[in-house]
Amino acid sequence: MGKDIAFARAAGVALLAATSLSGCVAATLVGGALATTGVSVAQERSTRQALTDTEIQLTINNKFLNEDYGLFADISTEVVEGRVLLTGSVPRQEESIRAAELVWSTPDVTELVNEITVEEDPGLMSYGSDLWISTQLRAEILADTQISGVNYNVETVNGVVHVIGVARNAAELSRVLNLASRIDGVKEVVSHVLTKHDARRAVG
Questions:
Q1: From the centroid of its chain, how far is CA 105?
Q2: Which residues form the BON domain (predicted)?
Q3: Can you give the pTM of this predicted structure?
């Protein structure tokens, strides 16, 4: 990923970087716990699981930062009930493999969905378009009264939309995926969503 794109993504996670460098991850978790607890009341996952997911995400990002700033800047991490989704673009396959190794070395990870692409330099325009797609989809999901928006996370890479979360039912999930497919610039929609009663869901 180009330097401009890496800078743009890094700016979005600057607070996490500062936290990681200072070694105060535990303090961040305390602050994040307050926000997570409030949101999780409306989520399908439990408050305990939401807090565990936050800890997993912070730990993975901290590992990426300590391993290689490029991993931290180029890869996005989403965690839902111990299931980790990695998206982004890296210049070499070895970096994707190393990112996966770091994820699996993190406690409480139950599944890894590695959607990292290997691409020398996707360009700043592509990143801007992806960000705009994700922003529009998040807004539409939250605005739709037939969708429990807090249960879904969205990432877009090169026009491919990745959705992860917990759907209340198949109809709701279908509605989310339909919203995504109708947005200009979307090339493909990939669902990593489990429904509420799926036996694969973590309990806790």
A1: 18
A2: 52-120, 129-197
A3: 0.80
